[in-house]
Amino acid sequence: MKTKSTLIVGIIVMLAVLAWTIHAQKQNSQKVSWQYTVLTFYNSNEARMKLEGAGNDGWELVSVTEAPDRSVTLYLRRAK
Fold first, then answer.
1. Looking at the DSSP assignment, which residues form a beta bridge with residue 34?
2. Sheet containing 60-66: which strands, arranged edge to edge?
3. Rg value, the chain, Cα
4. Which of 40, 47, 68, 76 is the most buried (most CB within 10 A)?
5. 27 pLDDT exceeds 90?
6. Given pLDDT bands bounded at 50, 70 and 90, which one contains residue 1?
7. What is the per-residue pLDDT for 28?
8. Phi/psi of residue 41, each to 5°?
9. How far, CA to CA in Å, does 61 sit from each of 39, 48, 78, 79?
């Protein structure tokens, strides 16, 4: 009988923790609006300097592509 009571209490505690976790996740989730920009360069030194400046302004690099003409396109975003 004591084992059954312990099991029931354990299940209740686990359900309470689960409910609290779900509630906390809903409270902390906020929709983020993003601002995007695209930069294209033909010189890697110019790209590096521009990217460092963009990083200081809050931009984060999302993707990089290189075209057959060796140009590099940087895709950046930051929260509005």
1. 79
2. 34-41, 72-79, 60-66
3. 25
4. 76
5. no
6. low
7. 62
8. -135, 155
9. 11, 12, 9, 12
pLDDT at residue 25 is higher than 80:
no
- Return the domain boundaries, the chain: 1-30, 34-79
The per-residue DSSP string of the chain comes to -HHHHHHHHHHHHHHHHHHHHHHHHHHH--PPPEEEEEEEES-HHHHHHHHHHHHHTT-EEEEEEE-TTS-EEEEEEEE-
pLDDT at 19: 82
* The pLDDT of residue 62: 94
Confirm whether pTM is higher than 0.70: no
Q: What is the number of other CB atoms lying within 10 angstroms of the CB of residue 59?
A: 19
